[in-house]
Amino acid sequence: MKVLDTLLKIFGKVGFWVVVVLMGAMSVLAFSAVIFRFVLHNPLTWSEEAARYMMVWVTFVGAGVAMEKGKHIGATLIVNKLPVELRKWCIVLSEVILVVFLGMLIYQGTNFLLILRLQTSPAMGLPMVMPYFAIPFGCTYMFLHVLKMVFSKHLVLLSTDNVESKDIGEEKER
């Protein structure tokens, strides 16, 4: 568990700063592109492509950051109305589905990198491995969080910081 906690701590720090830096860079780039296009009449031909690749990274890494903070959205209306025992099984099922899904994304994302290893982007000439590495990176980050949830045996709903998961523990004590 210490290895998992260490990995998550590293991913957490790197992921947070990747999202912060890329969001800032996208803002500066978008503003600069507007200035170059409409004021200087000399558009930056690579700006849209760079912003798109930054958004790919922000999306996948940001999903990991959201997973860490328990801020993914979820539909808990039905699950919250279930009896506690059935609710536990729904949580376990959702974790298993998530582990399988993220594992498939990591596997296929890595295969995708191997396929694209020689391809370059049209405007910037950037190796396509760089933008698409966000898929296995971000999914590995989320996968590690789900593993931690499973291994630590906490019954926490993935989507919100709600009271229902605490209610499960309280009913167990009764």
How does this structure look, described?
The protein has 174 residues and is mainly alpha-helical. It has helices at residues 2-39, 47-69, 77-81, 84-115, 129-132, 134-152, 164-173. The chain has one domain (2-173). It has 7 helices and no strands. It starts with a helix and ends with a helix. Helix 1 (2-39) runs antiparallel to helix 2 (47-69).
Index terms:
single chain; 174 residues
Strand content: under 5%
Derived structural class: mainly alpha
The helix-strand sequence is HHHHHHH
Shape: elongated
Total of domains:
1
Distance between the termini: 30 Å
Number of contiguous helices: 7
Whole-number mean pLDDT:
85
Q: Tally the beta strands.
A: 0
Please mark out the parts with pLDDT under 50 across 5 or more consecutive residues, or reply none: 155-159
Give the biggest beta sheet.
Answer: none
Kindly state the percentage of residues in helix.
over 70%
Task: Record the SSE blueprint.
Elements: H1 2-39, H2 47-69, H3 77-81, H4 84-115, H5 129-132, H6 134-152, H7 164-173
Brief rundown of the structure:
The chain has 174 residues and is mostly helical. The protein has 7 helices and no strands.
